[in-house]
């Protein structure tokens, strides 16, 4: 993690920004501007964006500049992801995005305290560094990655701690998708409070 990131959230380590289609979860299929912040110490061995982990590799960028970039796109929705975006105080960035009329969505493991003003919170909790209660309470969707059979039980244990209107998703870990997707299909048929989420952008070959 970087030592030089100011605590007021006016400068953030930015790995990449791209305009694409939300590939996963509740908002799948919607155009959105993705803001990927660098820095994560959760350590998922199957993480599909390990290049994000070292915040020092990603330039500190003015939050005001990120907002200006987001404003240029037709869809008035951003997805803030990482890395683990909640390592940083996101109040300044999300306040400015909302002032510009842009909806704010986040992808988070919930391993850090909740900051920011959100229209949608996607919580994808991890065994390696568990989710915090404030994020469990606020989540609009719980999206559990299924890497092996034990993850179904683990998903149920976390579903107990989210709000009653929280959407429940099971998403196959990408390298195990051929093996796990049939198990997820059977599980959802037996437990229809859960739905399947696929990483559709990977099938579509888009970012
Ligand atoms: C790269 S993470 C960044 C945001 C945050 N650190 C988190 O884990 O939620 C974005 C999303 O991709 C999911 N993800 C990461 N690697 C994956 C993989 N190999 N297969 C399926 N989903 C994956 C995460 O669970 C999360 O929902
Ligand atoms: N298209 C697309 N949808 C996504 N949804 C969550 C992503 C992420 O890496 O956080 C992601 C991503 O990287 N690309
Ligand atoms: S918490 Fe997210 S960014 Fe961090 S290692 Fe896990 S999947 Fe990757
Ligand atoms: Mg991704």
From TrEMBL:
Residues 27-207 form the Radical SAM core domain. It comes from Sphingobacterium paludis. One of its GO terms (molecular function) is S-adenosyl-L-methionine binding. It catalyses: 6-carboxy-5,6,7,8-tetrahydropterin + H(+) = 7-carboxy-7-carbaguanine + NH4(+). Its cofactor is [4Fe-4S] cluster; Mg(2+); S-adenosyl-L-methionine. Pathway: Purine metabolism; 7-cyano-7-deazaguanine biosynthesis. Substrate binds at residues 21-23, 36, 81, 207. It is an enzyme of class 4 (lyase). This is 7-carboxy-7-deazaguanine synthase. Its EC number is 4.3.99.3.
């Amino acid at each position: 993690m970087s030592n030089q990131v100011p605590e007021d959230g006016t400068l953030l380590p930015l790995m990449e920004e791209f305009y694409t289609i939300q590939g996963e979860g509740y908002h799948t299929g919607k155009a959105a501007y993705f803001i990927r912040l660098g820095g994560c110490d959760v350590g998922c061995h199957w993480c599909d964006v390990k290049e994000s982990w070292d915040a020092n590799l990603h330039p500190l960028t003015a939050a005001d500049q990120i907002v200006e970039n987001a404003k240029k796109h037709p869809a008035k929705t951003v997805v803030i992801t990482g890395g683990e975006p909640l390592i940083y105080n996101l109040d300044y960035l999300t306040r400015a995005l909302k002032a510009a009329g842009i909806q704010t969505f986040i992808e988070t493991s919930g391993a850090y305290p909740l900051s920011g003003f959100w229209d949608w919170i996607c919580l994808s909790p991890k065994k390696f560094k568990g989710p915090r209660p404030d994020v469990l309470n606020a989540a609009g969707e719980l999206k559990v990655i299924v890497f092996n059979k034990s993850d179904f039980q683990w998903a149920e244990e976390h579903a107990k701690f989210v709000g009653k209107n929280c959407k429940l998703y099971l998403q196959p870990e990408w390298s195990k998708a051929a093996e796990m997707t049939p198990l997820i299909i059977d599980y959802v048929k037996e437990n229809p409070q859960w739905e399947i989420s696929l990483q559709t952008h990977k099938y579509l070959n888009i970012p």
